[in-house]
Design goal:
The complex is a heterodimer.
Chain A lengths: L14 H7 L3 H16 L7 H4 L21 H10 L3 H4 L26 H13 L1 H25 L30 H6 L4 H4 L7 H5 L16 H28 L9 H12 L11 H6 L16 H31 L1 H32 L35 H12 L27 H18 L1
Chain B lengths: L12 H4 E3 H8 L3 H11 L9 H4 L9 E3 H8 L3 H20 L3 H9 L7 H7 L3 H6 L1 H11 L10 H21 L2 E6 L3 E8 L2 E8 L14 H25 L23 H12 L28 H18 L6 E4 L5 H10 L3 E4 L18 E3 L13 E3 L2 H9 L33 H7 L12 H6 L5 H52 L11 H17 L3 H54 L1
Helix pairs in contact in B: 3-12, 6-7, 10-11, 10-12, 11-12, 11-15, 13-15
The chains are: A mainly alpha, B alpha/beta.
Chain lengths: 465, 605
């Protein structure tokens, strides 16, 4: 094992070498001590009572408790308000190092203390009365600005300009702030907003434009209708209802009724049967099998019987013959078709005509449907218009005892959807959160407490319901 | 070099449309704000021709918007306003949760208002455009005017709706623009004509608020619509008042100032205040003349000189002229059980004067004891104290009179009478080739007399099951009634348009004289025109003209003619059936009468 000897002499030629090999620990210690002294003050300059405490109590057991009432929680909090918060303590100066620049100007925050000059000027202003004036002016300005704001809010309620007139500045697109007399027309024109002319708006959808907002009412919805018209309306309602029923029946048939229904008992039986397949020996099914007493596999072996040459040849010949006959038939048909040309022509043309007429019919039907079709703007469908019908027993025939049956707001809302001005949507209701409440058990809880609590909970539930 | 490959859906239908989500991202708005701005600016979702392509290959149904529409929205200065609002909302929310209510108040005070005047102008470049789109606006405003303050509706909205609707009704009263009314189970349908545009709207019954269930209607959306419509209606009102030489805003009763909002918490008080406001006459602009009467219609030379059409238009104009002054000079008193709102509006619209019970409601102009009242509108079977100087009619008479454009005979509308059905004035006039039973025809057209009316047969049929003893008295009363009706009609004719009628009679006489002069046979001319011959010639000419119909339209023409013929046949058949039935009933009745007479004779003997 080779122990490296410490070198007696080392080169301290370079700065790094010097640093590496010279011992400066004592210097650093000294400096550290000095810094500490600077910070905390010299040890020997400190007074005795700063360093020592006179022990008046001694080591005796008896402890005189000071007769101070403990602070309440609130008082403690109050007391803490005056303290500097813990988080700010780090920002406070802890150093005892004196300010190197002792003549530093202390800059007071503005308004903390009046200067001599400001005192003089203030005095002069008060004597002049200019201060009073200024205060009044400020108050007045504030009032004006407040009122202007108020007025600008009321603008919405007062309609005081002819929007369709020619001479109105606002109409020309000049911003409101420039619509005053003393602003030159050049300045106004320069500031015309470009909003309206930037892009042409594409025309609104056809459904919005074409469909009327208020449909003409069926004469049967009169509060005092004629018998005939009322019956017609009733027929409409019946048709509508039948359509809906048919739809519902269809949906029922296609969904619920598509699946077989099994009673609970039979389901259980089935389950038992399925689950106990391997347990019981399968019962013999045929009596003849039992009598035979011989083992028979479920799938008896099949023998691969090869065809001989003759059979193969015959098969080939048969296929060829069949093909030949087919060809012959086609060739014959070609010849006969030449004579049938006119007939074929007519049949083709009649078919074309038929198809044409069918297509026309389909198209016209499609167009008619598109006129009243509900726009598909969303995954939800707009509600179909339901005829508003009042059953005859509710029709009193006089205005006094008329009761409105339809919700007009809903009618409007749905009409907007039917016209395509709004995408149909289902109004999602906010669900009330279900908050479970518990009673925290403790050693002091009595049965009465629990009862009282439960009563409160029940009350709340009732109110929310 | 190979050119860069074109990305799919970067042109064509895929680029034309934009999903709502993409639009939100592009505009940097929340869904709530986007909905609002779309409604205000009139941007609607679109239905593409090929959904798959428009959705860039994505399945399902998404809400799509035109990219152009969204780009158009991008330049709207209101978007910046909306973003400003968002900041305010955040501040308010924070202040509320920190319980700094002073700050909340301050924020609410400084809350920026959105001014949408320029949008109204942009969406409706001309006044007529605005009028054309007023249907929805009016219906919603009338509806919202019945609402109390709701959770999702701004507080001032329903108040403003009330004021604006009343102002609009006043404009209609002055312009005499109402043409049709219809009382349905839903509400009152009104149709007015302003500047050649027909405007239809619905006013709900009673002005009472029905509680709305939350899951049916999105209140926020509807209130945004109303926000736009209010601004629009305000400016329409301003323009209307200007053109009618009225002062805008009108000074209405105290209930329509925002200061007294609190005073009118009571629904009933509000309604009566509203009706009272309608009974005021408005201040005219100083120095303006009365709105001059519309001059006689001029006939211009146009391309299609169909004398029938011109005649029809002239007739219509004349009827409207009569309608405008239908109730002029008449005084109405409305009993307290009658819904006053529509009646006051309608009667004032056609120049009548209205009043009601002074003790029950505000704004009455004259008392019930006033002898100059011509009609009292009653909706109860009987009354203790009746004045001889006035007619007691049921409210439907007013509406039916307006729809038929004449003062109807009141005998069917008297107090306690079973009312005739209230017919809809909104009928399709193109479907006139249908059979109408004589009773209904008499209702539609007061001049029409059912066949066999002279013998009182039409009424007799209804009472066929009645006992015979009452019949005679019945007949007498009916004849009395008829006499009354005739008298009444004559009276009304004298009252309302006596001068017009005289002129017409004079003209007729003149015409007949001239015709007689022309018909005088001069000596030496032997040619005589057979009317029958002429008819035949006319028919031949017509057939010749029919032949001139182009081949393209011939089939259509033929089918049209055939349809007309068939409908005529049907009507004829039904009329014949009805006639035969009537005759049969009549004969049976006669036979029964004779039989009873004979029995009575036998008994007497």
């Amino acid at each position: 094992m080779i122990v490296e000897k410490k070198k007696k002499r080392v080169s301290k030629r370079n700065k790094t070498a010097w640093r590496k090999h010279s011992d400066i620990r004592d210097v650093e210690e000294f400096l550290e001590e000095q810094r500490l002294e600077e910070r905390l003050g010299r040890f020997d300059t400190k007074k005795d009572d700063e360093l020592f405490i006179v022990d008046t109590q001694g080591d005796g057991d008896e402890e005189d408790k000071p007769d101070i009432k403990p602070l309440s929680a609130k008082q403690q909090k109050r007391a803490k308000l005056n303290e500097t918060p813990r988080c700010f303590q780090i920002l406070l100066p802890s150093s005892k190092v004196e300010d190197p620049n002792k003549k530093r100007n202390i800059v007071k925050r503005f308004g903390t203390k009046p200067t001599a000059l400001s005192k003089l000027t203030l005095k002069r202003k008060i004597e002049n009365g200019s201060l009073q004036k200024k205060i009044e002016l400020v108050k007045k300005n504030m009032k004006i600005s407040r009122e202007r704001k108020k007025k600008s809010k009321v603008v919405r309620e007062t309609f005081d300009k002819n929007l369709w007139g020619q001479d109105l500045l606002e109409v020309k697109g000049i911003p409101e702030t420039l619509c005053e007399e003393f602003i030159s027309t050049e300045a106004q024109l320069h500031n015309v907003l470009t909003t309206q002319r930037l892009r042409p708006k594409p025309p609104p959808p056809k459904t919005v434009v074409d469909r009327v907002a208020i449909e003409t009412p069926h004469p049967g919805v009169s509060y005092n209708p004629t018998f005939k018209e009322h019956q017609e309306l009733l027929q409409d309602v019946v048709q509508h209802e039948e359509k809906m029923m048919k739809k519902e029946a269809h949906i029922n048939r296609v969904t619920t009724k598509m699946f077989r229904r099994i009673s609970a008992k039979s389901k259980e039986n089935q389950w038992i049967e399925e689950m106990s397949v391997g347990f019981q020996p399968s019962r013999p099914q045929d009596e003849s099998d039992v009598s035979d007493n011989e083992y028979r596999p479920v799938n008896p072996p099949v023998q691969n019987k090869k065809k001989d040459h003759k059979a193969r040849r015959k098969q080939k010949e048969m296929i060829l013959e069949k093909e030949r006959l087919k060809r012959q038939k086609i060739d014959k048909k070609k010849i006969t078709d030449i004579y049938k040309l006119r007939k074929l022509n007519t049949s083709i043309s009649t078919k074309e005509k038929r198809l044409e007429s069918e297509r026309e019919k389909r198209e016209s039907k499609k167009q008619a449907e598109a006129k009243t079709a509900l726009p598909a703007l969303n995954a939800h469908k707009a509600p179909v218009k339901e005829p508003d019908f009042v059953p005859p027993e509710q029709l009193s025939g006089d205005l006094r005892s008329l009761n409105a049956s339809t919700n007009l707001l809903r009618d409007r809302f749905e009409s907007l959807q039917r016209r395509g001005a709004l995408a149909a949507s289902k109004v999602m209701m906010k669900k009330n959160r279900k908050v479970k409440s518990y009673y925290k058990a403790g050693h002091k809880v009595t049965d009465q407490d629990v009862e009282k609590y439960m009563q409160n909970v029940n009350k709340k539930v009732k109110i929310s319901k | 070099m190979v050119s860069k490959k074109k990305k799919k859906y970067s042109s064509g239908e895929g680029a034309q449309f934009m999903t709502r989500k993409a639009a939100l991202k592009k505009l940097q708005l929340t869904l709530k704000d986007f909905r609002r701005i779309c409604i205000l600016k009139g941007i609607y979702p679109r239905e593409p021709r090929n959904r798959k392509r428009a959705q860039k290959g994505a399945g399902g149904i998404k809400t799509l918007y035109h990219t152009k529409d969204i780009k158009f929205l991008l330049h709207e200065p209101i978007i910046w306003k909306i973003r400003e609002l968002k900041v305010f909302q955040q501040k308010i929310r924070r202040a509320k949760s920190m319980r700094e209510y002073g700050k909340v108040k301050k924020y609410f005070r400084d809350y920026p208002e959105i001014n949408i005047d320029h949008i109204v102008k942009e969406r409706y470049p001309t006044f007529v455009d605005a009028l054309r789109d007023l249907d929805d606006c009016l219906t919603l405003c009338f509806l919202f005017s019945t609402f109390p303050s709701l959770k999702r509706v701004p507080r001032d909205q329903s108040m403003l709706c009330r004021r604006l609707t009343i102002e609009f009704m006043h404009a209609l009263i002055v312009a005499k623009a109402i043409r049709r009314v219809f009382i349905s189970v839903k509400g009152y349908y009104y149709q007015a004509e302003l500047e050649g545009q027909t405007i239809t709207w619905i006013v709900p019954h009673h002005f009472s608020f029905q509680p709305q269930s939350k899951d049916e209607v999105d209140f926020k959306i509807m209130s945004t619509f109303v926000e736009f419509y209010i601004t629009m209606l305000g400016f329409v009102n301003f323009k209307l008042y200007n053109s009618l030489n009225l002062v805008y805003p009108p000074k209405l009763t105290a209930g329509f100032n925002s200061d007294s909002e609190k005073a009118l918490v009571d629904e009933q008080a509000y309604v009566s205040e509203r009706i009272a406001a309608m009974n005021l006459s408005l201040a005219k602009v100083v120095g303006s003349n009365e709105v001059e009467e519309v001059p006689e219609m001029d006939v211009f030379e146009t391309d299609d000189q169909d004398p029938l059409k011109i005649e029809e238009a002239r007739k219509e104009a004349e009827q409207i002229k009569v309608l405008k002054t239908l109730f002029k000079g008449l005084k109405f008193f409305i009993n307290r059980e009658v819904p006053r709102e529509p009646l006051v509006f309608i009667i004032r619209c056609f120049g009548g004067e209205v009043s009601w019970d002074r003790d029950h409601f505000v704004g009455a102009t004259f008392d019930e004891s006033d002898e100059s009242i011509t009609y009292q509108i009653v909706d109860r079977p009987s009354m203790d104290k009746q004045y001889l100087s006035r007619y007691y009619v049921q409210p439907q008479w007013v509406f039916d009179s307006v729809n038929t454009r004449t003062l109807l005979p009141i005998n069917k509308y008297l107090m306690g009478a079973t009312l005739p059905p209230h017919l809809s004035p909104f009928i399709d006039k193109t479907k006139d080739q249908v059979y109408i039973p004589p009773e209904q025809r008499a209702l539609n057209d007061p001049d029409y007399k059912p066949p066999g009316d002279d013998d009182d047969e039409s009424e007799d049929i209804e009472e066929a099951s009645d006992e015979d003893k009452e019949e005679k008295s019945d007949e007498e009363s009916e004849t009395e009634e008829q006499i009354l009706t005739k008298q009444y009609q004559a009276e009304v004719a004298q009252d309302s348009a006596s001068d017009n009628g005289d002129e017409e009679v004079d003209e007729k006489k003149k015409l007949s004289k001239e015709k007689k002069k022309k018909m005088a046979v001069k000596t030496g001319i032997t040619h005589k025109e057979h009317p029958y011959q002429k008819e035949i010639e006319d028919k031949q000419a017509y057939r010749l003209r029919e032949k001139l119909v182009r081949k393209k339209h011939r089939n259509l023409y033929k089918s049209m003619k055939a349809g007309q013929e068939k409908r005529k046949q049907d009507i004829w058949l039904l009329r014949k059936k009805r006639r035969l039935h009537d005759e049969k009933v009549k004969e049976e009745r006669k036979a029964e009468k004779q039989k009873q007479k004979a029995e009575a004779l036998n008994a007497a003997l």
